[in-house]
Design a protein that fits this description.
7-stranded antiparallel beta sheet; elongated; disordered C terminus
């Protein structure tokens, strides 16, 4: 990007127009406006900016022309008059405005219009080569100039604006406050903005904000007694008589207390309050509760004094509590000392009695809600304080406490005063070290309420992450108080800087949720409304519009009534929000204002695909509206909501949600297919006159979040809950049809697969990545819920048919091996992750056997349901799915099935293992057949290589299960012993591998384990095969003498000693023993053999001499004479002396025949497989020995058949040279291949021919 043009534009005429004509076709990337007096270029100090006035709105028009390469056309077409309009809000200073015409468009003309006197600007971009430009209408061109500073993705923020990683979370707020000419103390302004709320007249006082309460003047009203009566109550001494007025006290306490007030004065005040407490009454309880609230944000010593002097049981009881009193106590309990004061057995019992059914009849719903919140807050304070120092605390409950604190300004201000002013809390927080949180995995303020709090949870949160989250919460609340103060004073510099920080935080994953949540407090939504109503552009107004636009992306924020009114009040001209965006925001606000009927209408409207960003936001708000209605009264509202849907749209909610989820899955799949159907080259959805031309990550973020919202609502409607002890009625839940459940599981599976792809593609902490992670967890929880039986599951109609678990498993298994437009291997693993998550784990929770709890009983019922009702009905689907899995996944699935069916009642794991052994047998037989056919070929063909690799995978699976120390070892050996089919297949496979002389490290691992445990098996053929394979696998790699395992050698010799001669293959043993001895000699050339190995080798040689002489086992081949002689010397060096005589006898007994038959080559199993496209094509085509067509009889001619009526079998006719025109000449290996054809295996009247006539051109040789 380079400088294209610099100029100072001066409008001509009353229209305020100015234009720039470029000499060449250019692509503008950025426009930089310079204020008056600025020097844009260091090398040209004489160039000075002249922009006047300081702020104005500027309309910009580009003559946009498409850029297309056209080699056919030779004429230069005229530039079209298609103008792309946009608006720039200049609020002073040097500002960059991004221009995005895309790669398809360029321009020659730029027109500006506005109420300005001069405009100094620099235009940056690139020159575009000229090409033929066809005409284009303005409607076809997207908007060019973005009003926004840029849509912020998550970024690494500077330490100067990162209170989460600071020992003092309020440092940023204090620095921002220092921008004021006379900055007041931070503790004072946070108290005034959140808690005490100064009167309007106070703002005009010259001493403001230092207007403190005068306790002597405003609280204690004393008059000196001047009576001269000798009889006085106190023996004639004069004393101040205190006239205490609680109303005046409360009015005075609405002002802050100065730090200069003595501690004894505060103690005197607390005693005076306690002395004037009368019998319990609602009025007195209200006044004391309000006094606690007003004192909660003041000096800690005042609160302590009140708590020490006022007895709680003298003020509060069930009859004295009402809604207002409870609300005051709720705010006051945000103070840690007051929470400890109220957290007593007596007061908690009072709240319990207040909420009891016998008393709740006379109380309002709001009063009961306030009592419930107060009880929860008192209990949560203890959890929160524990979480500040305990690394194993309940961080979810502590985070929920902060969410409750953030619902009210008073509570937030009082809590902030406690966290920054109470020494014990400040010390606890400061004792935690600063650990930078690179992952941004802070606790979530919002988890889905009700059925499953883990629905939106990120998983386990560490203590360091929680502490960072608390510091961030304090930092955001502190900065918000500074914004409120600067906005109230009208200080533009401090306000702009503070809003800029908040806007930056909105674009970071760590702070976004906290900022958006606290901005919903009423005063902040009103301040956003006020700063966006100016006709003249201001930086604070631009930031406010950006914050407001970003805030509406969260459905819970859109449900805020104050925010809805703020959005409805927006009117043009606006500095950042285009008219289309304003209308989109207004649409959302109107849906919220109209309530449930409008939300139902939006949910049932047909959609166009792909779903736009605007439509996604509207759907999310509609889902949130329905959830809010359901949460109000679960026992009554559920039916009311469904009835409203039916009355309004004549449709059912659950099927419609399933359809909507299927549409979302369709869109998400479209963005992650190998060939995407959507035009995402620029990752932007073009929108005309819109500041929200959303990038693909932003659209994906909304798609994932909408899917999560729908799954949460579906779970809320369908899950079967246990009836609570406090309610006699059973919680309401709706059933799912089998068809609907299948549709939901398919959609969930597709969305789940895409969430992993998004998590991989996009950076951690970005909205797309975070929303994908949340949705992934939601998908897991939904399929588990749909698979559960009884409480915690769903009801599937028709009852008595297929269970939810069976339907879910069947769908996932079939979908995993079905066709998808994603990477099939990747898709398969994602389906396996879902299946692995929903399978019950019999080992979880097995450590609590002392008492059978309800959860354990439910768990046993789940396992029994799976074993007897689910697994037997999905055998075929499981087998097909199992065959496609990789080795590690196969082992893991077998392990899960073994744990689930620990008693082998169904035996699915055993059956799958047996089928795997059958596949191994089939592969080894095919390998053996192919090697017999192709033994004349020097190079192994590609089909054989693939076959060897497939065999290696089966051996790898078996090796994993037979690995020493594996939890599957005992099960695998037991299965081989009990399942004859698996044992026979394995025995045959190992025998075939031995005959084919296959070598592999994976085969070595299998052989070694089976050899050590061969005593369990009574099959002598398997034992001999294991010994032969063990002797052969010694040849793998360059082994030293230290690698030889004496235990295995002892076992091999012991097995040979148990076998009778009739069970032995002497030729194979001669060769393999000779080769093994040669390898041992080579490995011991530098390192001496251990005495154990030498003794075992001597025993093996001795065994050779004990075999029948006619078998010639004493004549070895596969080893040379000098090698055997060296081995004798090596063995003698480590043998005990008493065995040297035996060795010397063997020297003369064992001989070597170096002229024996040619030794066949070994076949190695490849560890990896790489194929070219041509090789892949060859594999998919029929193999040579399968594609050979046997010769057939030629068509008959007029020549008479010499055989006449003699009937002969077809195969005999082909072999008979006496038949006219039927003589067949075979070349090379044709005859051997022909013998494999089916026609050649027919029974004939004589033995098959043992020779082949080979000739040229029909002439015999």
């Amino acid at each position: 990007m380079k400088l294209l043009h610099w100029c100072t534009l001066v409008p001509k005429g009353p229209s305020g127009l100015a234009a720039i004509r470029f000499a060449k076709l250019v692509r503008v990337k950025s426009i930089r406006v310079f204020p008056a007096g600025a020097k844009p270029f260091d090398q040209s100090p004489d160039i000075v900016g002249e922009t006047e006035p300081d702020s104005f709105l500027l309309d910009v028009y580009f003559n946009a022309q498409p850029v297309q390469s056209s080699s056919d056309s030779k004429e230069k077409q005229r530039a079209t008059n298609a103008l792309v309009p946009s608006t720039i809000a200049y609020a002073g200073g040097q500002v960059d405005f991004t221009v995005d015409l895309g790669t398809e468009y360029a321009t020659r003309l730029m027109i500006v219009k506005g109420q300005f006197d001069a405009l100094s600007l620099a235009i940056y971009g690139e020159v575009v080569s000229e090409s033929i430009i066809p005409p284009l209408s303005a409607e076809e061109i997207p908007s060019s100039v973005s009003k926004s500073i840029l849509s912020m993705e998550t970024r690494t923020i500077s330490a100067s604006i990162d209170p989460a990683n600071s020992s003092d979370p309020t440092f940023l707020a204090r620095n921002l406050l220092s921008l004021l000419e006379v900055p007041p103390p931070f503790s004072l302004i946070s108290r005034l903005m959140f808690c005490l709320k100064p009167d309007n007249d106070d703002w005009d006082d010259p001493d403001f904000p230092y207007l403190f309460v005068d306790i002597d003047r405003d609280i204690f009203r004393s008059t000196l007694k001047l009576e001269e009566d000798d009889e006085t109550v106190n023996g004639g001494e004069d004393e101040d008589e205190i006239h205490f007025d609680i109303e005046a006290v409360l009015d005075a306490m609405s002002k802050p207390i100065s730090d200069d007030v003595a501690e004894d004065m505060l103690t005197r005040f607390a005693r005076a309050v306690a002395d004037h407490i009368d019998s319990k009454s609602k009025s007195q309880a209200f006044h004391i509760a309000k006094l606690f609230k007003l004192s909660a944000s003041q000096r800690p010593s005042l609160v302590l004094a009140l708590c020490q002097n006022i007895e709680i049981d003298t003020v509060f009881d069930v009859r004295s509590l009402d809604e207002d009193t409870l609300l005051h106590l709720l705010d006051a309990s945000a103070n840690a000392d007051i929470a400890r004061y109220l957290h007593t057995v007596y007061f908690l019992d009072v709240l319990t009695d207040f909420l009891s059914p016998s008393n709740s009849v006379t109380q309002t719903k709001a009063a009961k809600q306030a009592a419930e919140r107060l009880t929860t807050r008192l209990l949560a304070w203890e959890v929160f304080e524990d979480a500040l120092s305990n690394t194993q605390a309940d961080f979810a409950a502590a985070t929920a406490f902060l969410r409750d604190i953030g619902t009210g300004e008073q509570s937030l201000g009082i809590w902030l005063a406690s966290m920054t002013g109470h020494t014990d809390l400040v010390t606890k927080l400061a004792e935690n070290p600063i650990v930078p949180n690179s992952s941004g995995a802070y606790p979530k303020l919002f988890v889905r309420n009700g059925v499953n709090d883990s629905m939106s949870a990120m998983g386990a949160v560490s203590h360091d992450e929680f502490i960072a989250f608390v510091r961030a919460f304090i930092g955001v609340a502190s900065v918000l108080s500074v914004w409120a103060w600067s906005d109230s004073l009208g200080d533009d510099v401090c306000r702009e800087r503070t809003l800029g920080v908040l806007r930056l935080w909105q674009g970071t994953g760590e702070y976004r949720e906290i900022v958006n949540y606290l901005l919903l407090l009423r005063q902040f939504t009103l301040r956003l409304k006020w700063i966006t109503t100016n006709d003249t552009p201001r930086k604070s107004g631009i930031f406010g519009e950006q914050i407001l636009s970003e805030l509406l992306d969260e459905p819970y924020a859109a449900l805020n009534d104050d925010l809805v009114q703020t959005i409805l009040s927006l009117k043009q001209p606006l500095s950042h929000i285009y008219e289309n965006d304003r209308l989109s925001m207004r649409k959302i606000a109107l849906v919220v204002e109209d309530g449930l009927p409008a939300a139902i209408e939006e949910l049932t409207l047909p959609n166009t695909h792909p779903l736009s960003y605007r439509r996604l936001r509207t759907l999310r708000v509609s889902i949130a509206l329905v959830e809010r209605e359901l949460a109000e009264d679960p026992q009554k509202v559920d039916w009311n909501v469904l009835q409203t849907i039916w009355d309004e749209q004549s449709t059912a909610l659950i099927p419609r949600l399933a359809e909507l989820l299927a549409e979302i899955a369709q869109d998400v799949n479209g963005y992650f297919r190998i060939t995407s159907p959507f035009p995402v080259q620029h990752e932007t959805q073009p929108q005309l006159h819109s500041s929200t031309a959303m990038s693909l990550p932003q659209v994906l973020s909304q798609l994932f979040q909408l899917a999560e919202d729908i799954l949460g609502l579906l779970t809320r409607l369908t899950i079967v809950l246990e009836p609570s002890s406090s309610s006699s009625s059973k919680p309401l839940s709706f059933s799912l049809s089998a068809y609907t459940l299948r549709s939901l599981v398919l959609s969930v599976a597709d969305v789940f697969a895409c969430t992993d792809a998004a998590d991989t593609i996009y950076a951690q902490g970005t909205p797309a990545c975070v929303s994908a992670q949340h949705t992934r967890q939601a998908c897991l929880e939904f399929v588990r819920t749909a698979s559960n039986f009884g409480a915690g599951g769903v009801v599937v109609e028709p009852q008595g048919g297929k269970s939810g678990a069976e339907i879910v498993m069947s769908v996932l298994l079939k979908h995993g091996v079905g066709r998808s437009k994603r990477d099939p291997a990747y898709h398969l693993l994602q389906m396996f992750a879902l299946i692995d998550y929903i399978l019950p784990d019999s080992d979880s929770g097995a450590n609590a056997r002392d008492a059978m709890s309800e959860n354990e009983q439910t768990k046993e019922n789940q396992e029994e349901h799976w074993v007897f009702r689910v697994l037997p009905n999905i055998l075929d689907e499981t087998q097909e799915f199992f065959r496609q899995l990789d080795v590690e996944s196969k082992v893991h699935l077998l392990r899960r099935l073994v744990r689930l069916d620990s008693q082998s009642l169904v035996g699915m794991a055993e059956w799958l293992f047996s089928e795997e052994m059958k596949l191994l047998e089939r592969c080894t037989k095919t390998l053996l057949s192919s090697t017999e056919l192709d033994n004349s070929q020097e190079d192994t063909n590609i089909q054989t290589v693939v076959l060897l690799y497939q065999i290696g995978l089966h051996l790898w699976l078996l090796g994993h299960m037979l690995q020493t120390g594996s939890d599957m070892l005992e099960w695998c050996l037991r299965t081989l012993k009990s399942v004859s089919e698996a044992f026979n297949s394995l025995t045959t496979s190992l025998s075939d591998l031995s005959i084919a002389r296959v070598l592999s490290y994976r085969l070595d691992a299998v052989v070694q384990t089976l050899l050590l445990h061969c005593d369990r098996f009574e099959d002598n053929n398997l034992r001999l095969t294991l010994v032969v394979l063990f002797l052969r696998t010694i040849q793998l790699g360059d082994k030293s003498a230290t690698d030889l395992d004496s235990q295995l050698w002892l076992k091999a010799v012991a097995v040979l000693n148990t076998l009778s001669p009739k069970n032995l293959d002497f030729a194979m043993l001669r060769l393999n023993i000779g080769q093994a001895l040669g390898v041992i000699e080579a490995s011991a050339s530098d390192v001496n053999l251990s005495p154990e190995i030498s003794s075992v080798i001597l025993s093996l040689m001795t065994w050779l001499t004990t075999q029948p002489p006619e078998k010639k086992l004493t004549v070895l081949y596969g080893i040379k004479s000098d090698t055997l002689a060296k081995l004798y010397d090596i063995i003698s060096a480590s043998l005990p002396r008493d065995r040297l005589d035996t060795l010397n006898k063997l020297r003369t007994t064992l001989t070597v025949d170096e002229d024996e038959t040619f030794i066949p080559e070994n076949m190695n199993i490849p560890d990896t497989l790489q194929l070219s496209l041509q090789e892949l094509q060859d594999i998919l085509s029929p193999s040579p020995f399968q594609s050979i067509v046997p010769p057939s009889t030629p068509s008959r001619t007029s020549v008479p058949d010499v055989l006449g009526l003699v009937i002969s079998p077809p195969a005999a006719m082909l072999r008979s040279p006496a038949a006219t025109r039927l003589t067949k000449t075979y070349l090379n290996n044709d005859f051997r291949e022909l013998r494999q054809a089916a026609v050649a295996r027919q029974n004939t009247s004589r033995l098959p021919s043992m020779h082949v006539d080979v000739g040229i051109n029909g002439q015999l040789t």
